[in-house]
UniProtKB/TrEMBL annotation:
<dbReference type="InterPro" id="IPR018713">
    <property type="entry name" value="MPAB/Lcp_cat_dom"/>
</dbReference>
<feature type="domain" description="ER-bound oxygenase mpaB/mpaB'/Rubber oxygenase catalytic">
    <location>
        <begin position="164"/>
        <end position="355"/>
    </location>
</feature>
<keyword id="KW-1133">Transmembrane helix</keyword>
<feature type="transmembrane region" description="Helical">
    <location>
        <begin position="6"/>
        <end position="22"/>
    </location>
</feature>
<keyword id="KW-0812">Transmembrane</keyword>
<dbReference type="InterPro" id="IPR037473">
    <property type="entry name" value="Lcp-like"/>
</dbReference>
<dbReference type="Pfam" id="PF09995">
    <property type="entry name" value="MPAB_Lcp_cat"/>
</dbReference>
<keyword id="KW-0472">Membrane</keyword>
<dbReference type="GO" id="GO:0016491">
    <property type="term" value="F:oxidoreductase activity"/>
</dbReference>
<protein>
    <submittedName>
        <fullName>Uncharacterized protein DUF2236</fullName>
    </submittedName>
</protein>
Amino acid sequence: MLTKIFLILLIVFIGLSISFIIKNRRIKKRALEKLKNINTAETTDWTTEKLAAKRHVMDPLADKTVAAIMAKKEVNTINHLFESIVLDQNKLPDDAPEELRDFFKQSAILPEWADQDLINMGQQIYLRHGIWIGILLCYKSLPECYACANGAEVLHRTARLNENHGSLKAFSRRIAETAQFVVFSMSPDGLDPKGKGLIATQKVRLIHAVIRYYLKEHNWDAEKYGEPINQEDLAGTLMSFSALVIEGLGIIGIEFEPVELEAYIHCWRVIGHIVGLDDDMIPINSADALKLGHSILDKEKAPSEQAKALTKALRDFQNLKSKPILGEDSNTALMRLMMGDEVSDLLAVPSVSPEKITKMKKRMTFLTKIGEVLDKSLVFSMVLQFFTKFGLLLLLRRMSNSSIINFYLPKSLTQDWRARNQP
């Protein structure tokens, strides 16, 4: 009996392996053909003047939608509407206003240049390296966003939109929601019509508009900081989640083929379009994405007490959630390894010895080498992707007990921001 069960499982495994190999080879073959039409050496001149001008440009579609909803000044109704959007991923509530229906319809349209073969390959690449990408989100992407002082002001102020402002639980949920957005968007089929990633990105776009609405209603200094969640800040965030992550993967020994680089960045170019980036703020290839990310970081990084506070909260989160695998010194060494001393010092990340950083790099490189060996075999790659999916779910669960992206107007709005439900 056991022999029969084993043979059946073996046959199923072989069948799945053959199907997996054929599918991935076809995807790569088609992606390689598309690569011939991409000028991978061309980059944009991301001048300081152009980026500075984009600090005063927001998102007309999302902002117009939220303004129309908020004009009703019925906070309870608005809360109910947004809660319905969160809980039902497949359809809007029956009483959703026409403006909201139009937003979801228009923002779901992918750009003409979106290529399904490159999207498929980019999402496969994410599955192969999802755990490492998730780690880099906490140790590189987010803190480098905090280093941009003007953008950090938005992040710091929007913390007040939470009833549990200042609690690690609330911060953990915000990190988990960010991770969920990345996982949903970069998982296979995530950007398909009604895909989890498409819908999550649309929700994030609306959340940005809600934040802009309230900040601008309550003495936001646009001359000093630029508009809240402006085009430059949005582009910088997306590059930190994509091109700068690839840069971080290179630090720990994970290298990509040219077609893999372009496919991965192509996914984020599409996400950028969905989330409301202007066409002239979407990089044209992987080299351009890296250049844009560093151009914004170099321009915007500056000392900021808000950035230090955000980084301190992130480090507390890391120290709590990484136990017992990593201790506080290891977390600090990993952050300094990924960001370098200049940005780390700017964010008041504690100093650690160079030997500790070198030891951390060797440890991470050793682990990634094992994964890379398995990844080179398409059969083992299938198994690796299975465990990556499982690992990502565990990682999200470890971050927060919440399984949805939070999207509502908290009670604290009526207290901190004095939102009124009256005409």
